[in-house]
């Protein structure tokens, strides 16, 4: 797909047309790499920079990894994406922003799923003391096994 194809796709009436407006609304210039990165993040929620890079490069082969990091940084600074950093994993980027959701992470395969705010017995989302900080958000990560990895582990554990 050429640069003009990416631009045409991102301005098409089937839903991707909002991408160019999304960039402009936060003061970012509309470029083919930025449009391709937004499309990649729509197709790959919770993607690391390498995943976004591979998707962008498939559409725009001359785009560098450094350029993708720059695009992701600009997106995060503008509030278009949220950067999450599960312990022991590369930073992940997601387009779901503006709410206080959390994440489930599989310890075996690294799969990440969104979890809406906890209800009932919840994690500490309001610190007992801010120590003078202006708290902007709380980040909660739940760790465990996804259904596929749990089933695989159970199958290995069963005697034959």
UniProtKB/TrEMBL annotation:
This protein's UniProt keywords? Cytoplasm, DNA-binding, Iron, Metal-binding, Repressor, Transcription, Transcription regulation, Zinc
Q: Does the keyword DNA-binding apply?
A: yes
Cofactor, how bound (note):
Binds 1 Mn(2+) or Fe(2+) ion per subunit. Binds 1 zinc ion per subunit.
What top-level branch of life does the organism fall under? Bacteria
* Molecular function terms, GO-annotated: DNA-binding transcription factor activity; transcription cis-regulatory region binding; zinc ion binding
Record-linked Gene3D superfamilies:
3.30.1490.190, Winged helix-like DNA-binding domain superfamily/Winged helix DNA-binding domain (1.10.10.10)
**Where is this protein localized, as stated in its record?**
Cytoplasm
Q: According to its UniProt record, which cofactors does this protein need?
A: Mn(2+); Fe(2+); Zn(2+)
Pfam hit, one: FUR
Q: Is this entry keyworded Cytoplasm?
A: yes
Give GO terms for biological process.
negative regulation of DNA-templated transcription; regulation of secondary metabolite biosynthetic process
* Positions of transmembrane segments: none
Give a Gene Ontology cellular component term annotated to this protein: cytoplasm
State where Zn(2+) binds. Answer: 106, 109, 146, 149
Q: Which family does it belong to?
A: Belongs to the Fur family.
Q: Which PANTHER family match?
A: TRANSCRIPTIONAL REGULATOR FURA, ZINC UPTAKE REGULATION PROTEIN
UniProt name for this protein: Transcriptional repressor
